[in-house]
Amino acid sequence: MEKVLHRWKKVMTECGFAVGPTDEHEMKEIQRSLDPGEKLLKWYKDYAPRMGELDFGGNPIQLYEPEEMIEVQVNFSHDLASMQSNREWRNDWIVIADKGLDPFILDKKEGNLYHAWHGQVSINLREIAPSLDGFIETLTVLCEVCYLKYEGQFLNDEWEFDKKILREIENRLRAILPYDSVENWLSMLE
What we know:
Blueprint: H1 2-15, E1 19-20, H2 24-34, H3 38-47, E2 48-49, E3 53-54, E4 61-63, H4 66-77, E5 78-79, E6 84-85, E7 93-99, E8 102-107, E9 113-117, E10 124-129, H5 132-149, H6 163-174, H7 179-189
Antiparallel strand pairs: 1-2, 3-4, 4-7, 5-6, 7-8, 8-9, 9-10
């Protein structure tokens, strides 16, 4: 995990995105309220996302800062109009980001990361990484390719992801993620 986090910090900094430590008091609150596990605590303790959004065309990925983590959980686990909890929502889930208000969920029990199409009659989960490490590595690869190599010019004239760049991302992700996770990322990006 440490190697993944160092690379994350290096690439995000080179892209001009802020990454940084989290206040000890906030870390204790997250631990007490969410019991997120060692890996998420490590990421947020020293390498927390401080950039808000990562834009890869379409709806950007909104990475939640540690200070938002506790409050944002209710937005996804409850019907905000009635404040009734969603019966399908599991206590083992922690929302760490969203794309167009569709949450990225860390399953504390399994360790997997999912992207959920939220707000439907049922929650439709798609695995996007077998671990938090894989999720962080994926975001790192996306930023390396889209922002460092292609300097933010990854969309074509029709405002769609350039097919050549998308294939490059696909090849890079196949080295770190299972087949289905790569396919789910590609369908999100296309």
